[in-house]
Write a structure and sequence with these properties.
The chain is of the alpha+beta class. The protein has two helices and five strands; from the N terminus they run H-E-E-E-H-E-E. It has a single domain (2-91), classed as Trna Endonuclease, Chain: A, domain 1 (3-Layer(aba) Sandwich).
């Protein structure tokens, strides 16, 4: 994990878009893709997939990616006990701007 994160600056609870994102991994090198992570705690194992998808939906609805250039990787993670489920989406644009 340390090897992967060494190329990124890790920021948590950073104001972004219309709220506070759980984690943003900002690349240290030009050309690397930023990563936005939203974390959820599930009430049951059966809810984990839905909660991971809901985390991705929150990234979009709160526009946490606003102002980022190029591709951005969105990761939604849901936890229940020691179990974890994830959802990943890659979005891209010249410049992501706030919706009107």
């Amino acid at each position: 994990m340390h090897g992967i994160l060494s190329g990124y600056r890790v920021r948590s609870q950073l104001e972004s878009g219309n709220g506070r994102v759980d984690l943003i991994l900002e690349p240290r090198k030009e050309g690397a893709v930023p990563i936005i992570m939203e974390l959820k705690v599930s009430d049951s194992g059966a809810d984990m997939d839905e909660d991971a998808a809901r985390a991705i939906g929150q990234i979009h609805s709160k526009e946490y990616h606003m102002g980022m250039r190029g591709d951005v990787i969105l990761i939604g993670l849901a936890f229940h006990g020691k179990a974890v489920r994830g959802s990943v989406e890659r979005i891209g644009s010249e410049l992501t701007v706030a919706s009107q």
